[in-house]
Write a structure and sequence with these properties.
single chain, 277 residues, mainly alpha, Arc Repressor Mutant, subunit A, Tetracycline Repressor, domain 2, 3 domains, 14 helices, 0% strand, DNA-binding, Homeodomain-like_sf, HTH_TetR, HTH-type_Tx_Regulator, TetR family transcriptional regulator
């Protein structure tokens, strides 16, 4: 594990105990057993560290959900798989999820606010793709209303999972919400959220990265990883980006290799979209 990953993992433990405001850089460096100089080689400030943590956490959730939607082989189970993935991912990253929910009323710096809006839009776009895959033009007039209902289900029940100290059967919850979503899709007839309203309220999403930008991200990620299957996969994908020669199935397998690494979720998501996987 390199210094940057060490700082992120250890600081998350402290933030989970004391919140963002309750932890100083000195406490982080003491807990990590490093100097302040070593901290500032990885992060310019505590705010930059917090943004990096949220970036890493949200990207894992976005990638997990997007992967479940795009790789599902059965529309019959797609809603269940979608909800199960969303709640399982939330539960897996419960420490930082709880921090964000507790501190959502605190003033955010602009970078953090923009990040949250950005990831909200990515998740919303994945849900739109889910609804279109399931219902196509059949649900055209209710599509955006259903998208907001699904997003509301995830937010509401995620808080229930995180803050009630009782065992929860995620499989049962996912089946229940899949049924509710199907009922809404079949029987709702009065839309509130229209395409125009969706356009007015959507946040800004940066354009898809260029091939050159992706190559730079790959190079950076390769330099951060120690020798591993993920690093070798990244090196092959970097070559493929510049000089295409691999079969589609192999590219898909390489992307699947890197997405198993918790710090490669963003690059796997971007590459999956770039190669149309």
């Amino acid at each position: 594990m390199n210094k940057k990953q060490l700082i992120m993992e250890k600081s998350l433990e402290l933030f989970a105990q004391k919140g963002f405001e309750g932890v100083s850089i000195q406490q982080i460096t003491d807990y990590c057993g490093i100097s302040k100089g070593a901290f500032y080689l990885s992060f310019k400030s505590k705010s930059e560290l917090i943004v990096a943590l949220i970036d890493d956490f949200m990207m894992q959730i976005v990638d997990d959900i997007d992967h479940s939607v795009k790789n599902s082989t059965s529309n019959e189970n797609l809603l269940y798989e979608f909800y199960f993935t969303a709640f399982h991912s939330t539960e897996k990253h419960s420490d930082i999820t709880k921090i964000l929910i507790k501190e959502e009323t605190h003033p955010f710096n602009k970078d953090l606010l923009h990040k949250m809006i950005y990831f909200e839009e990515l998740i919303k776009n994945t849900i739109i793709a889910l609804v279109e895959k399931l219902y196509g033009d059949e649900l055209k007039h209710m599509k955006y209303d259903l998208v907001y209902c699904i997003r509301g289900f995830i937010k509401t029940y995620s808080q229930f999972l995180l803050f009630h100290q009782i065992p929860v059967d995620i499989s049962l919850l996912s089946r229940s919400l899949a049924e509710k979503t199907s009922l809404l899709a079949r029987h709702s007839s009065i839309p509130f959220i229209t395409k125009d309203l969706m356009e007015v309220t959507k946040g800004l999403i940066p354009e898809e990265p260029t091939k050159e930008q992706l190559a730079n991200l790959l190079e950076q990620k390769i330099s951060e990883l120690e020798n591993s299957v993920q690093k070798e996969s990244l090196e092959l994908l970097s070559q493929e980006l510049l000089e295409p020669s691999l079969q589609r199935a192999l590219i898909k397998g390489l992307i699947e290799n890197i997405r198993l690494h918790p710090h490669c979720k963003e690059i796997s998501y971007l590459l999956r979209n770039y190669f149309k996987m």
